[in-house]
Amino acid sequence: MKFIGIIPARYASTRFPGKPLAVLGGKTVIQRVYEQASSVLPEAYVATDDERIFACVEAFGGRAVMTRADHKSGTDRIEEAAEKIGTDADVIINIQGDEPFIQKSQIETLMQLFEHAGTQIGTLGKQFETIEAAQNPNSPKIVTDLQGFALYFSRSIIPFVRGQEQTVWLEKYPFLKHLGLYAYRREVLREVTKLPQSPLEIAESLEQLRWLENGFRIRVGLTDVETVGIDTPEDLQRAEEFLKETISVL
Fold this sequence. Notes:
Layout lengths: L2 E7 L13 E2 L2 E2 H10 L5 E5 L2 H9 L4 E3 L7 H12 L5 E4 L9 H9 L8 E7 L3 H4 L6 E4 L5 E5 L14 H4 L3 E10 H7 L6 H6 L3 H6 L4 E5 L10 H17 L1
Parallel strand pairs: 1-4, 1-6, 4-5, 7-11
Antiparallel strand pairs: 2-3, 6-10, 7-10, 8-9, 8-10
């Protein structure tokens, strides 16, 4: 089975314009993401709508493809990029352009999900460590069936543990945080990008609900590695501190 990684990267971020080109430990954020992806995958590309990002990727020796500026989601950008590349990959992995510390083990876990013939889309979940973190609506939750296929994603804390104080819920059920890393079988990526927005997607503002509502099966791999995403300049500062701590440990 052949895998390819595509990293969507926009310059025009509302909370952090130019985020992919921000410098983290002497390298741009997009270079760090690309290098992490390339350490696992035989082929990786950055899909961007900005010539500055395109030039940056080529300057550090990476591969990039220009895409339209009007895409509503990273999934749509990845589909256009896949078409332009003309890839013959069986599975396309969507690696977020603001995750410079994505780990080899996380990508490998995603890849392994496709050993199951029923996996159409793969993603990752990590157990919440505190009930306060699980209550955060900015951290989507997942519930799965007994085979690990997603039943639902929500910004609300799910499931509801009846008859128990919320302070002990984590002792009663392994609440899963959704990590925004996806992989799609090639033909499935084509299909999901043609779907209109769905009622649940609009209600929760979670794109993956569109896929579930249309009958696609999303298998969830488990990881114990926390991601360190960068959404704001403050996040970049925290990432700098995390990088220094990591280097000092090594």
